[in-house]
User: Which sequence fits this backbone?
């Protein structure tokens, strides 16, 4: 490939096609016709010397080569945009596609607020929420698989803080909540003080986004010389709610996440007979997104939605939710 003669517009088509997975949607985002986008893709294939996408029944599937070069292409285009038009982002005029990684509980709570803000601002922002399957979203951010990650990421935050000035990621705490024991309303333990002995004697469900067999509760109990019987492990809060309402299992959830089960009216929340500490919900992004105008707007949008969620927490049934002390100074009118 002769890079000196490469039309950089072809890379824009490539980037949008990778993001959208559809030639038609990529063309719409770029405000060009579908035949023009198809012609650009053919020219790109000719320039690279190999096929980057194959047609499937579900859209355009990128090849391994396309997956490998996309992070570099996406970051390079962002650098060019920042250099040539550092402040050029108008959410009402500029269409932008954002990918947010969130666990289903965070998404269930924040997504309605995000949509409300986008609609209120008449922004041309398209939000794609992707599932979180790990407590460390940094690899996904490194590979440009997502623009922003929102959730409880204690290990990742610790790593970012330990790296200090050399950190390649940034983080901001959005709000706080706390862990609680959750069970069905007519559970035998629902109307009595929950003791450690009663807790350990009961049967349990573990909610783990990564699918691990042992969680924070198990490690805490082990340090006390105790253990519990985990009957089932699930990775979705809605599934957890269904199981709780139909069994005598107990589970531990962030108290603000109970509405995400979809069954909060059939569940009760009780204090745990041991301390698990707080549950800070944080957003994390890569430093290369730090000054991008569209990304700054996205982070402000998430901050505003989080502030509104914290203010509406009791009304939504999200008990134990409070704004982060760091939030008010960062929230204001969106740029």
Assistant:
């Amino acid at each position: 490939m002769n890079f000196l003669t490469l039309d950089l517009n072809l890379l824009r088509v490539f980037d949008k096609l990778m993001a959208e997975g559809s030639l038609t949607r990529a063309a719409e985002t770029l405000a060009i016709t579908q035949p023009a986008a198809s012609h650009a893709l053919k020219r790109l294939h000719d320039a690279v010397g190999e096929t980057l996408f194959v047609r499937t029944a579900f859209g355009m599937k990128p090849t391994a080569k396309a997956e490998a070069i996309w992070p570099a292409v996406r970051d390079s285009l962002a650098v060019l945009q920042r250099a040539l038009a550092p402040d050029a982002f108008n959410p009402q005029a500029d269409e932008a596609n954002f990918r947010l990684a969130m666990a289903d509980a965070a998404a269930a709570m924040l997504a309605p607020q995000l949509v409300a803000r986008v609609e209120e601002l008449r922004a041309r922002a398209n939000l794609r929420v992707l599932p979180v399957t790990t407590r460390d979203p940094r690899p996904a951010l490194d590979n440009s698989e997502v623009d922003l990650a929102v959730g409880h990421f204690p290990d990742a935050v610790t790593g970012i803080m330990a790296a200090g000035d050399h950190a390649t990621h940034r983080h901001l705490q959005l709000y706080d909540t706390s862990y609680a024991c959750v069970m069905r309303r007519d559970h035998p333990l629902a109307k009595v003080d929950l003791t450690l002995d009663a807790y350990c004697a009961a049967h349990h469900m573990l909610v783990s986004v990564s699918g691990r067999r042992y969680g924070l509760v198990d490690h805490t109990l082990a340090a006390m010389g105790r253990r519990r019987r985990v009957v089932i492990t699930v990775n979705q809060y809605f599934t957890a709610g269904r199981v709780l309402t139909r069994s005598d299992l107990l589970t531990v959830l962030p108290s603000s996440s109970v509405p995400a089960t979809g069954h909060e009216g059939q569940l009760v929340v009780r204090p745990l007979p041991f301390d698990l500490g707080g549950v800070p919900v944080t957003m994390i992004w890569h430093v290369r997104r730090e000054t991008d105008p569209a990304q700054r707007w996205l982070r402000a949008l998430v901050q505003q939605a989080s502030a509104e969620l914290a203010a509406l927490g009791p009304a939504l049934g999200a008990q134990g939710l409070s704004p982060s002390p760091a939030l008010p100074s960062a929230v204001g009118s969106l740029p």
